[in-house]
Fold these 2 entries.
Entry 1:
Amino acid sequence: MNKDNSCCAPQRTKKTSINDRSTGKTSSAKFEKAELTGGPFRLGSNYELAYPQDGEGFTTEVFLSPFLLDKYSVTNQKFMTFVDDTGYVTEAEEIGWSFVFGGLLPDDFEDTRGVQGAPWWRQVFGATWKSPEGPQSTIEGKLNHPVVQISWNDAVSYANWCGGRLPTEAEWEYAATAGSSGTIFPWGNQLTPDGEHLMNVWQGSFPDKNLEDDGWYGTAPVGSYPPNKFDLYEMTGNTWEWCQDWFTNKREPRSENPIGPPTGTNKVIKGGSYLCHESYCNRYRPAARSSTTPTSAMGHLGFRLAYDCE
Ligand SMILES: [Ca+2]
Ligand SMILES: [Ca+2]
């Protein structure tokens, strides 16, 4: 079992700052949202295969106000609407490269630099949300897949455009848990109950052999798997999702609507992705967490938005 989080979240080591990239434009586009009642919720997990160094083993009671959450991850189609309306340029486009999982590159792809400790992550020039696996790739035919190669700063700019915000980690975890109590997954403790695949993760042996028993090697279209009891799709698996909070692995007891520490270097990401495998990285659970810098973008990291109730 991998103990550090480099398998999940490589990070840019330069330009790690919060970067106000707001376009000043707003949209009245309406997206499908679930209304969540909030209330008391126990954050964190005592699961024996959890990662103590991630800080997920510390459980604490929180109380959440009602809020709304996108039913689906933001798709390529929706992000394209944002870019068409505002002319927005993402950080990966501006910086010129991003992280791509090596197994998604063609066999004859030029030599790329790997990430130390996680050589399957490759530095690919020209990898952007429009070409998520490098310049030879396209989102044509994938408009209903979650948008990826999006930095935290990009996600916040999108949120400012359409009147939403990133969910806090507590909101995200409450939404993903969907009223289940004490189980590893919202549907129970089995990864594939009765052999059914309920999320897009990795089967086989990581990182060389993906059996694709769940139907997908990389991202799946949103809505491919059954929703949880809060009518939310693909909270776990498919793509990691940005949260609002700065990451800390020393979580303090928190009470009402926690928003995390006031400063930090990394932002929280939640939910795991198509690269998670039970033998290597089981961070495809609501309580699991990882983090990366706000300028980092990856081929397995997207987002969805929360909204305050009127
Ligand atoms: Ca899969
Ligand atoms: Ca997800």
Entry 2:
Amino acid sequence: MTKVKTVNVGLIGAGRIGSFHGESVARRLVDAELVAVADPAPGAAAKLADALGADASYTDVAEMLSHPGLDAVIIATPARFHTNILVQAAEAGKAIFCEKPMALTLEDADRGIAAAKAAGVPLQVGFNRRWDQAFFEGRAAIDAGKIGAVQLIRSLTRDPGPFGGDPDSIPLWTIFYETLIHDFDTLLWLNPGAKPVEVFAMAGALVRPDARDKGFLDTAVVNIRFDNGSIAVAEANFSAMYGYDIRGEVFGSGGMVTMGDVRRSSMTLFDATGVSNDTWRRDTDHFVQAYTAQLASFVEAARRGVVQNAPTGADARNALAIALAAIESVSRKQPVPVS
Ligand SMILES: NC(=O)c1ccc[n+]([C@@H]2O[C@H](COP(=O)([O-])OP(=O)(O)OC[C@H]3O[C@@H](n4cnc5c(N)ncnc54)[C@H](O)[C@@H]3O)[C@@H](O)[C@H]2O)c1
């Protein structure tokens, strides 16, 4: 039997999700090794590398890209750095997993895609919901024709409350670029082959109305019309007091699939106060299986040299085009075409 080669992975960005992905590579995947961590914040990379048993830590990404034997990188920096680091990693010949959003402009998305193509390296993007069991089965039912022609689609993200962020440190339009970008990918993925043609979005600051004047938005609804006639809605809010609520629904000519459940498990408590369920409170709890499976898929892509059955740079660009149209729609208070 041929021995499977271990893929040597370097993590770029040792923050919240980077630490979790690093832990997935080091502890949850059997055919990959976390060999290096890079982060410019003093001590951040060294601390994580030490905790996870990685060989080396760097404060400079270029230096990490020269780490001996490095096969692949995970980019988990703040969004505004993604494209430049992606291009740097492609030029160094590394397989790339890039967190969402891959880019903040279509020009940057094209630049990233072109760099990966020119270097011949696989580029996978962090739309983890595709690996959630319910969403995966929903897409399979659609592919099998079980609900007929897709007519209405819905995807929602309600982050767990109470909202504790500082509106002053959250970049403008984050709800579209970073939150709803997941829903835009989900809507595209659940409507195979359809192209978005028109977007009408509304948004507000209902959680932090005091920050509205600075342009902060924490609540949004986005309507999307596709070229196959289907109509979709994505919605988001930053403060669901009952938990981390991620759901999807596709209604077709022959039926419907629904996906997602805010309840942690089927354990239901019956007591003197009534009947209750615990709910998901963190993305890294809810999606531990999906996050791990997406990295297993990436490790396979690094080994094969090609991304298969996983979101690519082109998928990231398609979701970004909807986000940009939504931002324009909110700014102009009218429906806008999707570029
Ligand atoms: N797929 C998901 O469900 C999911 C969940 C959370 C975050 N994310 C995405 O992951 C990215 C990171 O989010 P986060 O919450 O972990 O952010 P974070 O702020 O917690 O961490 C970012 C880290 O990147 C480091 N960094 C900054 N500039 C860098 C550079 N040039 N090179 C290397 N490291 C650099 C920072 O020092 C910090 O440690 C964002 O794009 C976010 O949208 C995705």
